[in-house]
Amino acid sequence: MSNFVFSRRALQTIILRMSKHLQSDQLGSIVARLNRRGEGRIPAMWELVVLDSLGRMARLKHEVELPDGRRPDFELIIENLDGSEFLLIGDITTISDAALIENNPEWALSLELSRLARKYGLNPNHFGYRLSSHLVRKRSKLFLPPRGKLLELLGKELPPWMRKLRHNLLQHDIFDYVGTTAKFSISYDVTQRYQSGSSSSYDTVTSPTKNTLSTSLKSKVAQLRSAPPEATRLIIVCDGSSSIFRNQTLRSMGTFNCTEIATDFLRQNSSIDAVILVTVDGERTIEFLGDISGFELRLSLVFAPPENRSARLSPHVLKNLEDVCEKLVTLMPTPVRSPRKAAHLAKNFDFGPDIIGALKMNNDRVAFSVRALQHLLAGQITVEEFNAAHGWDEKWNPFEYKLREGRMISKAEIVSGGDRDDDWIALDFGRPDPAVTQFNADAASKAKV
Asked: Which of 67, 201, 236, 367 could bond 426 through an S-S bridge, CB–CB 3.0 to 4.6 Å?
């Protein structure tokens, strides 16, 4: 499975195709960012995919210098049926909640809680936490200090309590902490099967102008300011793991979604004609055992209210922009991961995981991950780990079962896994082989028939 929103195989195909549109140094820069583990990989991915889709629908130029020296991401020239040309100049940007998550280190508390539990011989799954919040500059923030101070606090306060839990064999208990920089509650329950946690929402947007989307859009105004007067100016905003894209419905009063934020920005900045918002639906899909179904792109084209639009937005231009948005959806590859999961994997891992554990099986064939098999043969995982991933044990293993029947592997076939970024190795089993079975007179009589 990929560590990007799209499969790595699809991205490599796009890289090869984009060599026709981009100069070698331009393409090399994008590829270098894709290969460098960190937060810059997802923005590079979106830039590559969007540029490729634009280049497949019309004449594309990348980073063409404007009179003020700025270099927008794309210049697109679309030839209309009447022979006229539609000039579109724009920039691609990606927004995420990275800074928001860093300022609300719930994840750090969860990881440290598990680490300390294991250190003191307790099951991390028996713990849960509840986090309080408070208002900081009119925005909800978890009542926690920065990550470093939080880890220092937990390391000092939790060990005495955990030693008490272990030595007294307590079944249930609660640890409450109230201080000048933190307020939280941690519970312990031996009947609890999984670690639990709850916190007040800190990612809702309560201002149309003070949020990551609005800030990103404003930063692009100067980038497009000196575009030719006849050019339509477009900003494409992609989801790099941002709650702004997900909080579209079931919102409380006084909060704003991404469409409303973009509309408000365009109302105040007539130098920009439109915004396209790009995200992936299917956040609740279970990303397990190579399952890549359930994800689909969602693109929204946003304009300012009619009274706030520039004179450039004629009905003809509006139709052209709508066509561009519709074509982008069809030309972009199929997503295989949510932006949230991809952002984590791309930041922390060079490559995506294989589909070890995925299995296709009938009476005559067993198919499983090629990459997992190669990891096994290379000694990177053990036989025990390989079997455990597939749920095989000493009571049942398909290969051991076939061997007892005397049915040996008769054929091996590699079946493409496509966007799974892994393939299947399918092993067929033949009839009982006399090389490993008792001689059988009945087999001879059946052969005559």
From this structure: 367
CB atoms within 10 A of CB 372: 23
Q: Given this model, what pLDDT does residue 138 score?
A: 64
Asked whether the predicted pLDDT for residue 169 surpasses 70, the reply is: yes
Q: Residue 444, Cβ neighbours under 10 Å: how many?
A: 9
Query: Which residues, at least 6 apart from 258, have a Cβ–Cβ distance to it below 8 Å?
Result: 213, 237, 244, 245, 248, 277, 300
Residues forming beta bridges with residue 281, ordered by sequence position = 296
Determine contact, residues 206/144, Cβ cutoff 8 Å. Answer: no
Q: What would the pLDDT profile of 194-253 be if each residue is shown by its tens digit?
A: 899 988 777 778 788 889 999 999 999 999 999 999 999 999 999 999 989 976 554 566
Task: Note the helical H segments in 269-411.
Answer: 315-331, 339-348, 370-377, 383-390, 398-405
Question: Are 66 and 57 a contacting pair, CB within 8 Å?
Answer: no
Q: How many Å apart are CA 94 and CA 243, to the nearest integer?
A: 13
How many degrees, rounded to 5, is the angle at CA 255 between CA 254 and CA 257? 145
Query: Which residue in the block uniquely carries the two structure tokens 């231009």?
Result: 317
Contact 132, 183 (CB under 8 A): yes
According to DSSP, the residues that pair with 87 across neighbouring strands are: 77
What mean pLDDT comes out for the span 351-355? 91
- Model confidence at 83: pLDDT above 90: no
Query: Mapping DSSP to helix (H, G, I), strand (E, B) and coil, where does residue 170 land?
Result: coil
Q: Shortest CA distance to 93 belongs to which of 226, 276, 295, 243?
A: 276
Q: How far apart are CA 290 and CA 296, in angstroms?
A: 16
- Look at residue 51 and tell me whether its pLDDT is greater than 80: yes
Taking the CB of residue 415, how many other CB atoms lie within 10 A of it?
12
Q: Is the pLDDT of residue 441 over 70?
A: yes
- For residue 80, is pLDDT > 90? no
Long-range contacts of residues 172-176, Cβ cutoff 8 Å, at least 24 apart:
none
Q: Comparing C-alpha atoms, which of 140, 137, 114, 139 is closest to residue 127?
A: 114
